[in-house]
Amino acid sequence: MRGPENSKIILDAIGLFVAAALVGVAVSAHPPTQNVLLGVATSFIFLAIFDILLAAQRSVLKRTATKFFGPELARGNVTFVYPDFEPHREVKRALNAAGARMRYQRPTSRVRALGDFWIDVPQSAASNDIEAILLMAGIFGGLPARPDSLMTDRRLIDSCDRSFISVGFTSSACTYLYLEHAGRDKLFDIVPEPPGSKRRMYARTSDGREFRSDDRNQYGLIVRYAPDRRNHPGRRWFIIGGLGPQGTIGAAWYLAEHWRQLARLTRPDQDFAAFVCVPAMAPRGAYLPDNGICTGPPPTHPAAPLLVP
């Protein structure tokens, strides 16, 4: 990024130099030549000042993003993490007993040939998780090109030596990694619903607030956590999930569109859990209710060692 920025500075300096030279020539000229020279000089000055103001705005935005997302995410390579799935062990057992193997097919399509191929899918991912990643990729200018910028949660927790943004709530190993590592400082917990309930679980914050999804509205969750303030003060873990598939999409959309608001509501060194309300029929209409954010002070005791079996 240094190359383009330096080039723009050089071009702005050249533009101001040309404008100054034109003004110098215009002083000794007479109308209408003088008017033309001053008009061109003014144009150069306007463009240079406009570009300088844009550069200042980008600089302020970059500093704000660095404080909110942490230096490792804002300045380095962004790692997006998603949960992958495989056939249930009972399905595997039944297939093995029948001497068959798992077979996938495409949904019915106008392109008839799509349904005729054997498709080998050793693991699969949820479409709402992928959509959530695509929504957030724009925050950092698109998906990075490095091969470790997109990985499964199982691979991440085997070597969790970085900042990351994880999608998925109860389905993601990163959520449970956070709950275990944060320990007494965790901002929420996952609570199972009573038997017979339509939903399997809900979220309860550390101060006792409860968030449950229903058929009309689902809750999405945005968590920021600093796992090692002493040795890696710029490291941040983000958990983006939902109590329902639309909740994950809504949380990702809200972070992509409104992270500056969350930055205003929280200190840069503060962990937080924000519960956004997501209309099931319009996940991009997610909003933060008045009681939707739970913050915590920096830990007063050392965090648990980051050991993953």
Mean pLDDT across residues: 81
Helix/strand/pairing class, anyone?
alpha/beta
Anisotropy-based shape: elongated
CATH architecture of the largest domain: 2-Layer Sandwich
How many discrete structural domains? 3
What portion of the residues fall into strands of 2 or more residues?
15-25%
Using only CA atoms, what is the Rg?
26 Å
- Strands side by side in the biggest sheet: 4-1-5-10-9-11-12
User: In DSSP terms, counting alpha (H) and pi (I) runs of 4 or more, how many helices?
Assistant: 8
Low-confidence stretches: none
Distance between the termini: 39 Å
CATH topology label of the largest domain: Chitobiase, domain 2
State the share of residues found in helices, binned by percent: 40-55%
What's this entry about, in short?
With 309 residues, the protein is of the alpha/beta class.
Provide a descriptive summary of the structure in words.
With 309 residues, this protein is α/β, with parallel strands linked by helices. It folds into 3 domains: 2-69; 71-86 and 125-296, Chitobiase, domain 2 (2-Layer Sandwich); 87-122, no CATH class. Helices cover 40% and strands 17% of the residues. It has 8 helices and 12 strands. The chain has helices at 2-27, 33-69, 71-75, 89-97, 127-137, 153-158, 173-182, 245-265, and strands spanning 80-82, 84-85, 124-125, 150-152, 164-167, 188-192, 201-205, 210-211, 217-225, 237-242, 271-279, 293-296. The strands form 3 sheets. It has a 7-stranded mixed beta sheet. A 3-stranded antiparallel beta sheet has the order 6-7-8, with no helix packed on it. Strand 6 and strand 7 (201-205) form a beta hairpin. Helix 1 packs antiparallel against helix 2, helix 2 packs across helix 8 (245-265) and helix 5 packs parallel to helix 8. The protein is elongated and about 95 Å long. The two termini are 39 Å apart. The mean pLDDT is 81.
